[in-house]
């Protein structure tokens, strides 16, 4: 009787051991899938960072007609290029994370980095909006002065009005797009942080 009981106990231990191994393997698979999911969620931000680098030459070229046709100062143009370059550098510093941070790194440290990223992104957005307001005011003052110096029925006067409306429209659209991107980035960080908390709580 004792022999049968011992045999049954050994079988139960063996089955529990097999079950434990399966659960451990399942946890490993789930963690890998979650890490891959987090990397994919973050990938659009990295793609965005690449796009804005290639956008700088086009924006710089698009600004040239105002300088050449309306006589806007080269100081303003130079400041525009400097502002865009600093913005791109700040974007990379704040938002870029390598893929191996998600696939191999410590997830708790990654969550801390994502939380810090949110704080820096908010600070960068506020500072950026203040700088852009000053940049737009500078441009509008120069356009207005050029228009005042031109005859009311001249081509320069008409172009000045067109540029002012175009810049105002672009500023509104740019603000809307920029804020949408900002909130989408913040939500992406929140989603990944929640994923990490869910995984670490299970452990």
Structure description:
By secondary structure, the chain is mainly alpha-helical. Helix content is 92%, strand content 0%. It contains five helices and no strands. α1 runs antiparallel to α2. The radius of gyration is 28 Å and the shape is elongated. The model has no long low-confidence stretch (mean pLDDT 81).
What is the helix tally? 5
Give me the strand/helix succession. Answer: HHHHH
Q: What fraction of residues sit in β-strands? A: under 5%
Give the beta-strand count.
0
Helix content: over 70%
Could you state the oligomeric state of the chains shown? single chain
> Given the C-alpha coordinates, what overall shape results?
elongated
Average pLDDT metric? 81
Helix- and strand-based class? mainly alpha
Distance between the termini: 40 Å
Largest sheet: none
Question: Unreliable stretches, pLDDT < 50, 5 or more residues?
Answer: none
**How large is the radius of gyration?**
28 Å
Short summary:
This protein is an all-alpha fold. The protein has helices at about 1-70, 75-95, 100-105, 105-150, 155-200. It is built from five helices and no strands.
Give the helices and strands, then pairings.
Blueprint: H1 2-70, H2 74-95, H3 99-103, H4 107-149, H5 155-202
Helix pairs in contact: 1-2, 1-5, 2-4, 4-5
Feature tags:
single chain; 203 residues; mainly alpha
